[in-house]
Amino acid sequence: MTIHVDIVSAEALIYSGRATKLVVTAYHGELCVLPGHAPLIARLHPGAMRLTDTFGRERHFMVSSGLLEVQPHLATVLADTVLRNDELDADSALAAKTRAEENMRCACSKRDYERCKSEAELLTLLLRQLGEARVRR
To answer: pTM for this one?
Structure first.
C-alpha cells in the first residue's frame, strides 16, 4: 500500500509521488504517516523530514515551519522552505546560510525578515546534521 505525498515550498513543488512512509518533525514530536492514516492537520517544527518511496529508497529533506495535512491516501506538506539533503553539501549550505543572514539584515518587511530567519535556522540544522553524518562515517 502507498500514500501520495506532495511536498511544496513557497517557491516550488519539491516532490510529488507515491510513498510507503512519511516521517516529519511536528511541534509535539516526530510523526510517522502510513497509508490509510487518519485525517489530521499538524504544525511542522523546523527539522528533518524523510519519506520512503515505492522502491524502498529513503529521501531526506529539511523543512522550515509549515503545515502537514493528511488524508487516508494523500499527505501534503506546505512549508516556507524545503531543502533536499542530497542536493546540498556543507560548503553550499554555509554559503546559503550566510546569504540568508545577510538578507535578514536587509529585509524590507517583517514577513521577509521572518522568512530569511526561518531559512537561516533551517540551514543551521542542516549544517549540524551534515557534521554529524561526517562524524559517523
So the answer is: 0.75
